[in-house]
Amino acid sequence: MITNRLKKLLLKNNIAIDYKISPTEFNTKKDFIISLYQSKGYEQINDSLILFLGYFLNKSFSARGNHIDFTLEKVLTYNNKGHYSYIESCFDLKNLIPFANVYDNYYTLLINEDNCVYAEGFKLLLYGSDPFEALENLLQGTPIETFKL
Predict the structure, then answer these.
(1) Contact between 56 and 75 (Cβ < 8 Å)
(2) 15: exposed, middle or buried (C-beta count within 10 Å: 0-12, 13-18, 19+)?
(3) What's this model's pTM, rounded to 2 decimal places?
């Protein structure tokens, strides 16, 4: 969920989002998100990812010199199911699902079945134990852990 800390970081970075999404609007977004992922071969979509994208779907902004883009159609254009099988096998991760482009599209944000969020690009960076914590850490420019690919 959106913590007070995340709200402060969003405000500090001049990022405005609607904190009160109606159930009808959320269900419409949820159906769209699930349908789009299924069309690309993803069958199991994390509930925490759906909740997160309910707030941030198709949002794009810059913070700390980092462009963050949650335009799902764009992210999924190049990231079909199986694209991350190498990373899954190397780091014992399961069901990686892309959901954003960060660092001017050099990295892709991925969530695994345990809700942990990674940025994949030149390295694999762990950003949080869920998408909301990961966004906090992205806005501060502080990954939790770095792995060499």
Answers:
(1) no
(2) middle
(3) 0.91
